[in-house]
Model the fold of this input.
Amino acid sequence: MKLSDLECKAAKPKEKPYKLADGYGMYLEIRPTGARYWRLKYRFGGKEKLLALGVYPLIALKEARARRDDARRLLDQDVDPGLAKKERRLKAYEDAENTFEKLARDWHDNWKQDKTPKHAAAILSRFEIDVFPTLGIMPVSKITPQMILKVVKKAEARSAYDVARRIKQTCGQILRYGVATGRAERDCSHDIKDAIRPYKMEHFKTLDIKEIPEFLRVLDRNEMRLYKQTQLAMRLLMFTFVRTSELINAQWKEFDIEEKSWVIPAARMKMRRDHIVPLSDQAIAILKELKEMGGNWPWVFPNQVRPIKPMSNGTIIHAIRRMGYQDKMTGHGFRPLAMTTLKEKLGYRHEVIDRQLAHAKKNKIVAAYDRAEFLDDRRKMMQAYADYLESLIRPKSSNAGYQCLVYLPR
Done:
């Protein structure tokens, strides 16, 4: 005989546990404490087993019957409902432990091994700001393309189109890492490819060759009252065309004035290998002046406020802005400017310039076999480039008392 809601509510505890049957092996067990539990008795593999269906009244009679019917359907498919329940609990526990943030941080620990600390920190920071607040607590198994798209669209809404593209790209890397390590089924980020706003990568702003003389004159006149150290940093950046981060973190121990060379250690290079920068006479003159100004610190360009640290990353950008070139030039712009000038005006081969710029080879096979450094050519090229820059603002008629605007100490 089937139970009714009224009977379930009216059931009173007794000195010993007792049962109220509902049919098909299900019953309500009433304990002396007053607690009431739904149970299902069934047989599987020739053994009698018991399945907990929930606690009454949290699980009402109707819901208990639905759970019983689900269990009986599993039995019809030769599946043990008790074992299936344990597997669901284990899956729920694994989901709770296997969140997107945990997977992302595990991927990051693995991925960052051959990356610079700065690059690795930037990737993690981007996810902490843009991704983890939305997807961090989600089980990896529950991540959908629409969830990733929502995060991407938030970045697009603030016009951070490159960030949006990189978020999608990195989410894909994380999910593929999850597939490889058995924590994700597939990379669903690929499904949103057509829903992302097309983004055209803009090149870094840089001067035209004909604008160099006036830029140098503005820097030399210093009407914007830049620190002398900042002026010299700008000049050295122009002569060496290294990356801004490589310049501001330069240490005196990396320079050999006698050999006229600067060896940037692999740890600070994007390509993770030592990079030689041949130094022109103009660059050597700048370094000597810097040494006289404050060469007791390990940094070539110590921070003005806290000299135990290097110059701030924004110093060069701020200086360019104060010079009035914020829409024409960036710190990175000295690199394409050098490449254009060396190719078009001085006729140097692309591979020599490319090696000096420490660019990665696009072809992995070429990268494996082409180990040429062109060091002799690069030494000549760096001096020729410095001389060319100097010639752009040197008066055509030689003056015995003339001081070069580019590199001579003031």
Observations:
- Strands lie at 18-23, 26-30, 36-44, 47-56, 255-256, 261-264, 275-278.
